[in-house]
C-alpha cells in the first residue's frame, strides 16, 4: 500500500513540474503571452471590434497596433454605444469574431460620411493611445459591451495595420516556478515512500538476524 501511494505521489509531482514549467515558459519573465501579429486592413476610416469579439471575461489584454514606417495611428477602447454613435454613417471594417488559434472574421460596414471630430479630441475613451508607427493600450476584459477602434488620427481613409495581442497575467512566471518546485518536493516524497518499502529479500534477511545464535546451533550433551 505504501509503495502504491508513493508511485501516485511521484506521478503527481512529475505532472506539477511539467505544468509549472510550461506555464513559466509560456508567460516568461514579463508575465505575458504574445502570439504572432495579426494583419488587418480597411478601405474605410477604421477597424473596430464587435462586442461579441471581446466576450471574454477575466484576462488583461495588451494590444499593440503598428503601421508601416512612421504613419500615424490611433487605438482606443470605448463603450459600444459611444463608438456606434461616433461612427454613424461612416465606412469601416468590423471584426465580428476572434477564435483560438488566432483567427478573425470581418465584415464591411458601408457609409459615406466622416466623424464630426478626430478620435484624439474625444473624452469618452476608456483607454487610448496614438503615435507615429505604433500605439499600445492595455485593458482588462469584462462583461461590458466595449469596442476596440483602430484608425488614422486625422480621419484619412485606407488603413493597413498589424495588431499584436498579448495576454498579461501578473505573477504567472513566478507562479509557474512555484508549481514546479512543489512538484519537485512531491516527487522527493514519493520516491522516499517507494524506497522505504523493504523488498522480499530484505524482509527475509531481517528475520534471520532476529534468530538467537544459541537457538540456531543446538549444543551437545555433556558427558
List descriptors.
223 residues, alpha+beta, Jelly Rolls, six-stranded mixed β-sheet, 5 helices, elongated
Run of helices and strands: HEEEEEHEEEEEEHHH
Strand order of the largest sheet: 7-6-3-10-5-8
| Sequence stretches where pLDDT stays below 50 over 5 or more residues | none
Q: Into which percentage range does the β-strand content fall?
A: 25-35%
Tell me the number of structural domains: 2
Put simply, the count of helices is: 5
Rounded to the nearest angstrom, the radius of gyration is 32 Å
CATH topology of the largest domain, what is it called? Answer: Jelly Rolls
Counting helices, strands and paired strands, the structural category is: alpha+beta
Helix content: 25-40%
Secondary-structure arrangement, i.e. CATH architecture of the largest domain: Sandwich
Q: What is the number of beta strands?
A: 11
Q: What profile does the largest beta sheet have?
A: 6 strands, mixed
- From the spread of the alpha carbons, the general shape counts as elongated
Mean pLDDT metric: 79
CATH C-level of the largest domain: Mainly Beta
Distance between the termini: 55 Å
Amino acid at each position: 500500500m505504501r509503495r502504491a501511494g508513493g508511485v501516485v505521489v511521484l506521478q503527481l509531482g512529475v505532472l506539477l513540474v511539467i505544468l509549472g514549467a510550461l506555464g513559466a515558459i509560456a508567460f516568461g519573465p514579463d508575465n505575458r503571452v504574445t502570439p504572432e501579429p495579426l494583419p488587418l486592413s480597411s478601405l474605410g476610416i477604421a477597424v473596430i471590434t464587435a462586442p461579441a469579439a471581446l466576450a471574454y471575461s477575466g484576462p488583461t489584454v495588451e494590444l499593440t497596433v503598428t503601421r508601416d514606417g512612421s504613419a500615424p495611428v490611433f487605438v482606443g477602447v470605448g463603450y459600444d454605444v459611444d463608438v456606434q454613435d461616433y461612427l454613424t454613417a461612416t465606412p469601416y471594417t468590423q471584426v465580428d469574431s476572434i477564435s483560438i488559434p488566432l483567427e478573425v472574421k470581418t465584415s464591411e460596414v458601408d457609409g459615406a460620411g466622416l466623424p464630426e471630430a478626430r478620435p484624439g479630441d474625444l473624452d469618452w475613451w476608456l483607454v487610448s493611445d496614438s503615435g507615429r508607427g505604433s500605439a499600445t493600450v492595455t485593458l482588462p476584459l469584462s462583461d461590458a459591451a466595449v469596442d476596440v477602434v483602430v484608425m488614422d488620427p486625422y480621419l484619412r481613409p485606407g488603413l493597413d495595420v498589424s495588431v499584436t495581442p498579448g495576454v498579461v497575467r501578473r505573477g504567472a512566471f513566478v507562479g509557474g516556478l512555484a508549481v514546479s518546485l512543489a512538484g519537485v518536493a512531491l516527487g522527493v516524497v514519493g520516491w522516499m515512500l517507494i524506497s522505504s518499502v523493504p523488498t522480499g529479500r530484505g524482509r527475509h534477511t531481517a528475520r534471520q538476524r532476529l534468530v538467537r545464535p544459541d537457538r540456531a546451533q543446538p549444543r551437545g550433551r555433556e558427558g
